[in-house]
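Subject: for your reference before the review

Hello V.,

The reviewers asked for a structural picture of the protein, and I figured it would be easier to keep everything in one thread rather than splitting it across files. Below is the amino acid sequence we used in the manuscript, unchanged from the supplementary table.
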Amino acid sequence: MPLKKRDDSPYWQLHIGRTYRKSTGTEDYEEARRIAKIVEERLRRLKHGDRGAVSWKEAADRWLTSTAKPKKRDRWILDWLEPFIGIEPISDVADPDAIEALRQKGLEVGWSHSTVDRMMGTLSAVLKAAADWRMIDAAPAIPMFRPQRAEPRWLTPSQFERLCAELAMHQVLAARFAVHSLLRMRAQGKLRWDRIDFKQRRAWIPAAEQKAGRTFGFPLTDELVRILRAMRWLSPPASAYVFTWKGEPIDDFNTKSFQEAVSRAGIGPLRWHDLRHTGASWAVQSGVTLPELMVLGDWTDYRSVLRYAHLAPSHAAAAAERVARWAHGEKQQQPAARARKHK
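And here is what came back from the structure prediction:
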């Protein structure tokens, strides 16, 4: 058995051939033997041209480097999966029984159905890439719980003003900016002064800082201009970022002080992201169409903006009236057409 111990490490080391040198990550000899058998079999299959013997970790690492914008959540999920399947051949991970076992592990540690689905989504993405790279014949079907999505939480104007009354000045400006710009929290925190053009009344967020992975430009309304001028007065002169606290850019607006203000205002539960929902809801109620909202908020999936469709009954009512008028006109034309036919 190719297992050895080094003086500088408590873990069993795996030595196979002249080049393979890796730690098993365990001090338990029996567990190290199990790992050694899996690795030896996988290397034997690779030697004979079986691409499905590539390890899960190798495939996952390749997927991370080839993805335009891997998310922090994906990295966290892959780190969580590695102790279970890191050394396993990708073809073994693609087995339906192995996939279901991973789903059950997620439930055993107390994850919600939606969190388990996120893990399954990352697993699916890696397996689809592995199929494209011909490591496996085809990506397997991935079981999902798909819990029903709750309606977006949004505030009425009076509720929003109650919230603002409990916030510090820099938070008030940030909250108003979130509602009127529809920016996501992380993108708002990365907004820089050199990406704001007051003359042309526009601003933009680079692709690397957008969830959709593409550069997003948005117009500066009178309200946004007023907010930005107030922020310029509050911000340190040398600051490159618009939203700062104690000279540092704000990465997370959903802080303890924000939640305490929500509690004092009596409008909880509320996340900072719900301010984006609030802005979208107000936009639809003011007459903005869903396609227009999709552009304003940088949504890439039309289903995302359909969540706000119920707030615009006037649009649907107008469309229904057009259908009714057309049908009524057709009914009037048909008797006249039959009368002409019988003459």
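For the response letter, the relevant points are probably these. The mean pLDDT is 88. Residues 1-49 form one domain.

Happy to draft the paragraph if you're swamped.

O.
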